[in-house]
Write a structure and sequence with these properties.
The protein is of the alpha/beta class. It has 14 helices and 14 strands. It has a six-stranded parallel beta sheet. A two-stranded antiparallel ribbon has the order 1-14. Strands 2-3 form a two-stranded antiparallel sheet. Helix 1 runs antiparallel to helix 14 and helix 11 packs parallel to helix 12. The two termini are 38 Å apart.
Length: 378
């Protein structure tokens, strides 16, 4: 078999050949010089695993409990906005695959598919929102989220303003996509993608829209900019109000400072996600993996989860060893959908779970509690 898919990174290499340059660049890229993107991966190399040998691991399991539910693996599909620009109906593909594998799936507030359509195919989906200081808008969106059936709400805190993604500008990518000769030429360079993920879906279902920001839906392809309320005035008092009105699980994503973890705990949140948005917001930030241990100490019994840069089963095990309760992965699962639709996502989930299961045996770990003594910072 030529260039077989053996791991998550293989999906990225293969997807680059199928996607228009501007779409692939949007998914892969980060802010400014992409230092954070690189350091997220490099952080995993700062920690080494310490195996214990001749341990009977025949009863090992990749199952874990988060928020009172037993999941089949300690990783989840992270929220990713505008996935339909790469794969038509990607949100539901990923949601179905996650449901079948019994891992969490998080729908992005920047999705191009209505939240009601997604939770219909995965009733355990979580919802990630971009909220503002506009109380009325927040209440309207939160009410819709609750009415749809979501019971875990993630508030993303690290998007006070739009990021400086210079590569998107160079590649001609905008949100929403603006018609241009450059965009047309880019699409025509990948006729298979253009037909399957752009022309055919628009002819059968109409133009995809940003459906879950609140307010009027905005089409994926438009000459107008994506008009959003300001977020740079969203603060702890705003979050306190959300905690008061949202009676289900509430998680804060996009924090790195242990002091913010303490504030979240004191506010009564149910969990936090250590994240620098995969390097897509503020460049030169510290890698989330480097902060997980300290954040876990500040969290007490409140779960600390993490994302950004996870690509291997050993990455997952390192994050868990440092105190993470669950690990979120985004880009690789979208690349898997590019290559094989829902079946591709299922394959990617299986590859990662198999790596974790195999490496637990090689580490001499029966369950994830054994990992705390199996890691060293070098």
């Amino acid at each position: 078999m030529k260039n077989p898919i053996l791991n998550l990174l293989d999906f990225e290499k293969a997807a680059q050949k199928r996607l228009p340059k501007c779409i692939f660049g949007f998914i892969q890229g980060g802010a400014e010089d992409e230092v954070s993107v690189q350091s997220n991966r490099e952080a995993f190399n700062q920690y080494k695993l310490l195996p214990r040998v001749m341990v009977d691991t025949t009863e090992r399991s990749t199952e874990t409990q988060t928020f009172g539910r037993t999941w089949s693996a300690p990783f989840a599909i992270a929220p990713m906005g505008a996935m339909a620009v790469a794969v038509a109906d990607a949100d539901r593909m990923l949601a179905r695959a996650a449901a079948a594998a019994n891992i969490p799936f998080v729908l992005s507030g920047a999705s191009l598919r209505r939240m009601e359509d997604v939770i219909a195919v995965n009733e355990s989906s979580w919802f990630q929102a971009y909220l503002t200081a506009q109380v009325a808008d927040n209440l309207s969106l939160i009410q819709r989220v609750e009415n749809s059936g979501f019971r875990t709400l993630i508030i993303t805190a690290d998007v006070a303003v739009g990021a400086n993604r210079e590569n998107d500008v160079r590649n001609g990518y905008t949100s929403p996509l603006r018609p241009s000769f450059k965009l047309l030429a880019d699409g025509l360079s990948q006729p298979r993608w253009l037909l399957s993920n752009f022309i055919r879906p628009i002819l059968t279902e109409g133009m995809p829209h940003f459906e879950n920001f609140g307010g009027e839906p905005i089409p994926m392809l438009s000459r107008a900019g994506l008009r959003l309320h300001r977020r740079d005035n969203f603060n702890w008092e705003s979050l306190k109000h959300i905690r008061d009105v949202w009676k289900h699980r509430l998680v804060l994503k996009g924090i790195l400072d242990p002091e913010d973890v303490t504030r979240a705990r004191e506010l009564g949140l149910d969990g936090v996600i250590a994240s620098n948005h995969g390097g897509r917001q503020l460049d030169c930030t510290i890698a989330p993996l480097a902060m997980v241990e300290e954040m876990s100490r500040a969290a007490g019994s409140m779960p600390v989860m993490m994302d950004s840069g996870v690509r291997r089963g050993t990455d997952v095990l390192k994050a868990l060893a440092l105190g993470a309760q669950h690990v979120f992965i985004g880009r690789p699962f979208l690349y898997a959908a590019v290559m094989g639709g829902q079946a591709g996502v299922t394959q990617a989930i299986g590859l990662l779970q198999a790596e974790i299961y195999r490496n637990m045996a090689l580490l001499g770990a029966v369950d994830f509690s054994d990992l705390r003594s199996r890691i060293r910072e070098i």
